[in-house]
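Handout, page 2. Input:
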Amino acid sequence: MCGIAGVVSADERLVEPAVRSMMRAMVHRGPDDEGYEAFPIASGLHAAGPPAGTVGFGFRRLAILDLSPAGHQPMIHRETGDCLIFNGEIYNFRWLRAKLESLGVSVRSSGDTEVLLHALVAWGEKALDELDGMFAFAFYHAKSRRVLLARDPFGIKPLYVARAQKAFVFASEVRAVLASGLVPDDLDPAGIASFFAYGAPQDPLTVHRAIHSFPAGSCEWVGSDAAAHAPTSRRYWSFPTPAEAIGEAKAVRTVQLQLNAAVRDQCISDVPLGVFLSGGIDSAALAAVARNHQSPVRTFSVGYESAGSRDELADAAATARGLGTVHQQTVLDDDWILLQWQEWLRAADRPSIDGLNTFVVSGVVKDSGATVALSGLGADELFGGYPSFARAAKAERWLRPLRVVPAGLRRAVASVAFAPLPAGKRAKAIDLVSGGTSALELACQFRRLTSDGDLRGLGFDPRGLGLTPQFLAPAAFSALSNARGDPFRAMSQAECFLYMGNTLLRDSDTNSMAHSLEIRVPFLGRWFADGVAALPSTLKQPKHAPPKHLLRKAMGAILPYDTFTRPKRGFSLPIGEWMFGPLRDQCEAAIGTLAACPIMPSGAINRLWQGYAAQRHAMHWSRPLALVVLGSYLQQSRRHVGQASACLP
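Output:
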């Protein structure tokens, strides 16, 4: 796990100072080593040409595999002069190494970076079809003087790009792109609207007009003229198509074998590794399978000694006893967590309402000596763990007859019908009935944070911003394949690429890397995820079966019985009480900063905040938190939001 940065420019003098500034902005991602290299780059995308500029590669290293200098990056191929900078892990690197060595390739180091470099030299972008891992990389092809950018299928590892006036810039973090000094920090109304709609900016948008998230599962060749051209990325991976029907027994065995292989490969580490353990099935499954490949297995849980909070310490401890892991639990009090609040906000690479829990847990695990942790993230999305899977199927059936009714008429009738409901529930119900009726559109609606009415009150019109009616960029749907007639599949894709991709994965990366901790997600291992995604939906969600039916079946023989029977508790903090209690002064300072941004009409933010304060006992804390984290982001980033020219469309 590391940080990568690069600049492509016709002006060689700009490149190295910009890249080195970007590297300094990401020391937390790689405290163990750094490196810089520069190469000539040609214009055009297809054929080698004379040098027309320079590309600079920068790298910060968190050493996980091959701790020796042999893992240093940028890594240059001895014979060809090709070069690689790479953030992430290639889990099947041992298999790839054997395949390359059978072709006569000599691999000197024991890690995955050199294997990836040789694979790209040997097979070019076709190597992407061979990779099981989480990654974002830049590969310089010396013969054609071009750069290949690529990102893993689910976007586990981040990559941000900016096409500025004098350069094409890319990096693992938004703050690093801005640290280049080559990219304007103008705010993007479309990105901010998507943030308010869902609680995190929705790919490919960020809250900065010039910076975009590189699409997951895609690659792109760039030359010296990349800054002047629209993106030409190509998808090399798509959500798998459904396979032929198979029996449940075979599906269960497939899940068992492939999860064992995914955990085996992701337990490979030259530094201490642990497992995040909650009281649920997902993390327990990883800990149980890890016993086949690690001895002992170390598990970690965190609880909160706070009025109004919930945790799973007792359940996690019971699971750990049943599995025989070496278990460590930490109980945190209010004072300590309130101190962490400010650190969490400072660590934010982009605004998000999620991630405080991950920030706290990651700090505890890192302090206990581990550098790598396994997380159960991805199981809910693939196996149907969220209540929205069942709700979407029901809602699609109920709303199907309304497709012929104009949306305006549906909204008018719903406004009357739902008038008795509390304000927050009323707005959500009206948006649900008057919005789209497909499973995908309903999936988006279930994840909405801010209603259409509140967004309009903030001055956001999706059509005027070039967004879909769901406040998403049209490109957000490019990764989703047709799932007509299969609500489970539609919901699984939406949860993977919208909620998980834009919130859970980004927050896991940001908040773990703030502590120089690597989080691995075996449920999103490529071959495992491909296999599960292709299984028939009827096997994953049979009628009247509990959520994650297939995973329960697969893990039934190796998990303690009470893992399946105890109620799901989750863990939460009394954030709403804090925002309007001990943290109110800090929160209102952030609100003041946000209110000064002329993207929103004068007074709109203050009115919304005051309304949330008046209703705080009847609404979820996530809605006022959205205002606080965006205002805090603007404070921490020292954005010049008072200048209308930097904010207006």
